[in-house]
Design goal:
five-stranded antiparallel β-sheet; elongated; 58% helix; alpha+beta; eight-stranded antiparallel β-sheet
Length: 839
């Protein structure tokens, strides 16, 4: 009674949490905060020099936020990303060029004395790029705005740190009109400025000039006026330079908000049009909904009435995860991106996996002849251990992804990690208590149509024979997994060899996207009357050299141009955007752009390799602790097998390697080991049973693998269904190109992990374990005693895989599968006899 009360309390708490969170969202009318790839806008990644201190980078973020806020941009998102990056996301901006200029401008203001003016053609004129001295106490040579004049300058006398306020003012004294910037200093700055200008007032000629330098360029070089007294200088100043109104206001803005503490480099610039963003969102949601529907249909067909409990659990899980996404968007500004949607779809599969692991364990207990309530409680106890071990590996992958990755990878990692933790909580607080209560209800437990027992036992014919489908459902397999390990190793060796050959650059090699090799990518809706040669001609007129032009379409006949070129910036990029928009007869705001520097690609690659190394180390330590070192090593070997196959498929089909590919590849790390842990956990459990005490490790592995074979298939299918929906529906049919790379790598990786957990990891483990002294002596003796599988197609028994069933008196006591099958059959026969007597 106490246990029943505890189960009811647990279920009520979950349902109240769902109701409260859903109610808060409905009342406040909150919605998920969408990323730029879904709502359109500008995304800019700036990278600080290596070794930049955290406090300096934090100050840089503050300065950038002040600049963007001063422009009146709605809902900008400016945050640190890793140890050197600053991510700026601005939705729906129309003045892209101005925003990029303001954000990217370092605004390092310096005041120096002019020592010499060097016109172009002078022997002292420095050709090429002028590199100023990094030492503020040293002299420097800097150019003016046009680059036609250079100045040899003295040390830095004053910096922008002393500026208190700057204002854009109409310059009535300038020839031809124009604007100037009036600068007011704080007390310390004013004192320094007075001393500096007073000292220069004592000099004659060019040395009376002050160079006002902004970002290593001399904006103006005014001379200290004759009215200024020697050693009695000014307390403020004016910056002139023939500025337009916008230029003067922008300069005043950056001077007022302050200079950036470090010089930042543009690593990535992306613009997404609202049209393309809404199309991607629609495609992603439609594919996700279809994938979820397929999962729900599958569990209903396979588990029948228990599938309805899965529906209820997934409904609670989905409501909670949606509420958290909305609240995280409001609390910490977390944006939901296409990568995040993909992570949530994978999490649906992970959540369904928990139901499958639980139900399959309950099924085993029922087949052993236990009562339904006892089967639920014992089954959950064993399943909970497996789920904790397997899901911890997935959480490790999410943590490594979040802290080491960049860009949309972090959003994916957050979604996956959050969903996995929530899945464990829902499984413990709702799935188990609900199943336990239903098992104690005669109506739900023994009912003819909705009874749990009928769903778990599987149906047999009147003559006692078991059909093939029933054997599959009951996991009563007689597959010689370990005996044929040489065949499996040969198949894997061939597949891996093909993948390695495909990865060789001279033969096939990987195709890297601009995120790794640098460059600019433009996407635009295509006017069907415009051909690829015509687009190339338009780009050539705009000055773009050797562009790669492709046409991508969907099943509705819609298509878009994708254009890759060397990195384009500033006016050159604006000119190219105008040319593409004109050729396609679309607005310039509908042209999607992405510019990436080579250093960004190197950073992504470095972080991915570092993440892989750290993850492998953590997994080896964790699996060695939870299972054993040899299991950890076998799991890592299977993982490398999966990664090589995924990379090989990418090379063969010619898909580009993008950050989305990195997301999927690192996700495979966790999921590949999930399946392997399920098999290994069953092997470890069987090793401890008395019935397996004198069995060879090959027999234990064979029996264990047969017992969990359908469990592995089911857990993989529930992930492949939503991922396959994203790949074939969202990507190929609906044209969501941003999901293509991610979903393909996930699909191939999950399929490969299903194979490797059974046909690679387990045979390798068996090969190593058979050499241990505990099993070395058993192997030849047991080999001669084992009856061939095909000779006696009996169910999996405690005597070993494929062994003939021994008489009841000679069978060892203990929870062996063979005993449970016999007891279940006897119970069924006895019930039939009782019915005949009543008649």
């Amino acid at each position: 009674m106490r246990k029943t009360s505890r189960h009811i309390t647990s279920i009520v708490i979950v349902l109240v949490a769902v109701a409260v969170l859903s109610g808060v969202i409905l009342v406040t009318e909150l919605e998920p905060k969408l990323g730029l790839d879904l709502r359109g806008g500008l995304a800019l990644t700036l990278t600080a020099p290596a070794g930049t201190r955290d406090d300096v980078l934090d100050k840089t973020v503050e300065v950038l936020r002040a600049r963007v806020d001063a422009l009146g941009v709605a809902e900008p998102d400016i945050s640190r990303e890793g140890s050197t990056n600053v991510l700026i996301q601005v939705p729906g901006t129309s003045d892209r060029a101005r925003l990029l200029d303001l954000i990217g401008r370092t605004a390092q203001l310096q005041f120096r004395q002019v020592k010499q003016v060097i016109p172009e053609g002078d022997p002292a004129f420095v050709t090429g790029t002028v590199v100023p001295s990094e030492d503020p106490a040293a002299e420097a040579i800097l150019p003016d705005a046009e680059g036609s004049t250079q100045f040899r300058l003295g040390p830095v006398e004053l910096t922008g740190a002393g500026v208190q306020r700057a204002s854009a003012i109409v310059d009535t004294g300038a020839v031809g009109g124009g604007w100037r910037v009036d600068v007011e200093f704080d007390k310390t700055g004013a004192d320094k400025w007075k001393e500096f200008t007073g000292r220069l007032a004592c000099l004659q000629g060019p040395e009376r000039q002050i160079a006002i330098i902004l970002d290593d360029r001399v904006e103006s070089s005014p001379q200290v006026g004759e009215e200024v007294q020697c050693n009695d200088g000014l307390t403020d100043t004016v910056i002139t330079g023939g500025f337009t109104e916008k230029e003067a206001k922008d300069l005043a803005l950056v001077l007022t908000t302050g200079a950036l503490p470090v010089k930042l480099e543009r690593s990535e610039v992306r613009t997404v049009s609202p049209t393309l963003g809404s199309d991607s969102l629609r495609a992603g949601l439609l594919g996700g909904a279809l994938g979820l529907a397929l999962v729900l249909l599958y569990v209903l067909i396979y588990y029948r009435t228990l599938g309805l409990q899965t529906w209820l659990g997934l409904l609670a899980f989905s409501s909670l995860i949606y509420s958290l996404i909305v609240l995280f968007g409001a609390w910490i500004g977390w944006n939901l991106t296409l990568a995040g949607i993909a992570g949530l779809m994978v999490s649906v599969g992970v959540a369904t996996d928990s139901y499958i692991v639980f139900f399959e364990r309950v099924k085993e207990e029922v087949h052993e002849g236990r009562s339904l309530p006892a089967s639920v409680d014992r089954g959950f106890k064993h399943a909970w251990r497996t789920m904790r071990t397997a899901n911890t590996v997935t959480i490790l992958a999410a943590v490594v992804l979040y802290f080491l990755a960049v860009g949309p990878v972090r959003g994916f990692a957050l979604a996956l990690g959050m969903a996995t933790l929530l899945d464990l909580a829902v499984t413990y607080a709702l799935t188990w208590p609900l199943a336990a209560l239903l098992a104690r209800s005669r109506f739900f437990a023994e009912g003819r149509f909705i009874g749990m027992r009928r769903a778990l036992e599987g149906k047999k014919s009147d003559d006692g024979k078991t059909s093939v489908l029933t054997k599959i459902y009951r996991s009563e397999f007689n597959i010689d997994f370990i005996g044929k390990r040489k065949l499996w190793m040969l198949i894997s060796g061939v597949l891996v060899s093909i993948s390695v050959l495909a990865l060789i650059p001279g033969l096939r090699g990987l195709t890297y996207g601009i995120d790794f090799k640098g460059g600019t990518l433009l996407r635009s809706p295509r006017d069907t009357s415009v051909s690829i040669p015509e687009m190339r001609e338009a780009l050539s007129i705009a000055g773009v050299e050797n562009p790669v032009v492709q046409v991508v379409g969907d099943f509705k006949g819609r298509s878009e141009f994708q254009i890759q070129s060397e990195e384009l910036e500033g006016a050159e990029l604006d000119k190219t955007i105008a040319a593409v928009a004109s050729a396609n007869k679309v607005d310039e705001n509908q042209v999607d752009t992405e510019s990436v520097g080579q250093k960004w690609g190197q950073q992504i690659t470095t972080k991915a390799l570092r993440g892989l190394a750290i993850f492998i180390l953590l997994v080896i330590l964790y699996m060695s602790w939870r299972l054993e070192p040899k299991m950890a090593l076998a799991g890592i070997m299977a993982l490398l097998h999966d990664l090589l196959l995924t990379a090989g498929v990418y090379a063969i089909v010619g898909f580009e390697v993008t950050p989305a590919t990195v997301i999927a590849t690192l996700t495979i790390l966790g999921y590949s080991l999930y399946d392997t842990v399920v098999v290994f956990d069953k092997i470890r459990e069987n090793q401890a049973l008395p019935a397996y005490a004198k069995k060879s490790f090959a027999e234990i592995s064979n029996a264990s693998t047969n017992q969990v074979f359908m469990r592995s298939i089911n857990t993989s299918l529930t992930v492949l269904l939503p991922v396959g929906s994203l790949l074939f529906v969202s990507s190929f049919l609906l044209g969501a190109e941003t999901l293509k790379d991610l979903s393909l790598a996930l699909f191939v990786g999950v399929a490969a992990s299903t194979y490797s957990s059974v046909f690679v990891a387990t045979p390798l483990l068996s090969f190593w374990k058979e050499k241990e002294s505990r099993y070395a002596g058993l192997r030849p003796r047991m080999k001669s005693q084992t009856v061939p599988l095909k000779a006696t197609p009996a169910p999996v028994t405690a005597q070993g895989e494929g062994a003939a069933a021994a008489p009841a008196a000679s069978r060892p006591k203990g929870p062996t599968t063979g005993d449970h099958v016999v007891r279940a059959q006897r119970k069924k026969q006895s019930r039939s006899k009782r019915k005949k007597k009543r008649r």
